[in-house]
From TrEMBL:
The active site is at K65 (proton acceptor). NADP(+) binds at G126, A127, G128, G129, A130, N150, R151, T152, P153, S154, R155, M210, G234. SUPFAM superfamilies: Aminoacid dehydrogenase-like, N-terminal domain, NAD(P)-binding Rossmann-fold domains. Homodimer. Residues 234-265 form the SDH C-terminal domain. GO terms for molecular function: NADP binding; shikimate 3-dehydrogenase (NADP+) activity. Residues 113-188 form the Quinate/shikimate 5-dehydrogenase/glutamyl-tRNA reductase domain. Its EC number is 1.1.1.25. The keyword Nucleus does not apply. This is Shikimate dehydrogenase (NADP(+)). It comes from Idiomarina fontislapidosi. Residues 6-88 form the Shikimate dehydrogenase substrate binding N-terminal domain. Involved in the biosynthesis of the chorismate, which leads to the biosynthesis of aromatic amino acids. Catalyzes the reversible NADPH linked reduction of 3-dehydroshikimate (DHSA) to yield shikimate (SA).
């Protein structure tokens, strides 16, 4: 069977092994996909060690996506512009290829929910690795604008300067109502809440949290309390980014995601 895995810390609750085993089943492949816990400073040696022992591909999650960007020998597609890599592919003649499937995953997830992006106003919360990773794909959908808000404004400025539809949002008062608000901060992972500007939300505002949970996420609760409309958690994005990674490792079509997404949602319950 083909050895795959996901590097991260923490990693024990990762759903990726489950998702990829369902893709393997669907496509008739034998896959051994492991959770790979890495110490904060051990990322590059862990990656080298695992690939030398026959890993054919891997995912990378928090907090190593930017480190992964730095260790690959070649960037695929939008990964070169994002500074963050979530997918590693063993290169045919040695070295590693880095891709970022988070952005395509997010766009596919939004489309599956009937949310279009072309001509829309998007408010992206956060300017860390998660935001950097999805920015190229969001920008490619030709939204009217992507406002980037970040607790630390200088990081928002850096990120926004790289993409033509992006603008930094320094003050809530200078924004118009967005059609879509995407949470790419890690606030909830630290149990911290994110103050949402109530005057920017109404029942037509759509929310998307990159974090998922069995119950409502902190962002989903806050979004609702602040007057927003429907707000999705990140489970669909997780499945969609995984499907793109799978297609890269095996040079195959993207696996079907709809049924697998619903199955995982039920398994979470
Ligand atoms: P990294 O910062 O390592 O790239 P990330 O999870 O992609 O990892 O980024 C964390 C994001 O969540 C950042 O935008 C961070 O804001 P800062 O740049 O100001 O640190 C944001 N974040 C984390 N905790 C937050 C909180 N309590 N409120 C608002 N934003 C928060």
């Amino acid at each position: 069977s083909d050895k795959l895995g996901v590097f991260g810390n923490p990693i024990k609750h990762s759903l990726s092994p489950r998702i990829h085993s369902l893709f393997a089943e669907q496509t008739g492949r034998h896959v051994d996909y492991q959770r790979l816990l890495v110490s904060p400073y051990g990322f590059s040696s862990a990656v080298a060690g695992q690939f030398s022992q026959g890993l054919v591909g891997a995912n990378v999650t928090v907090p190593f996506k930017q480190a992964a960007y730095r260790i690959v020998t070649q960037h695929l597609g939008s990964a070169a512009h994002s500074g963050a890599v979530n997918t590693l592919i063993s290169a045919p003649h040695g070295g590693l290829i880095g891709a970022n499937t988070d952005g395509d995953g997010l766009v596919a997830a939004l489309k599956s929910k009937g949310v279009s992006l072309a001509g829309r106003r998007i408010l992206l919360l956060g300017a860390g690795g998660a935001s950097r990773g999805v920015m190229p794909a969001l920008n490619a959908e030709k939204p009217d604008v992507i406002w980037v808000w970040n607790r630390t404004p200088s990081r928002a400025e850096q990120l926004a300067s790289l993409f033509d539809s992006a603008q930094v949002l320094r003050h809530w008062s200078s924004a118009r109502k967005p059609d879509l608000i995407i949470n790419a901060t890690s606030a909830s992972l630290f149990g911290e809440s994110l103050a949402l500007p109530e005057h920017l939300l109404d029942a037509d505002t759509v929310g998307y949290d990159m974090v998922y949970s069995r119950d409502a996420t902190a962002f989903q609760s806050q979004f609702k309390a602040s007057g927003g409309g429907v707000c999705f958690d990140g489970l669909r994005m997780l499945v969609e980014q995984a499907a793109v990674s799978f297609s890269l490792w095996f040079s195959c079509d993207k696996p079907e995601t709809e049924a697998i997404y619903h199955q995982l949602r039920n398994e979470l319950a």
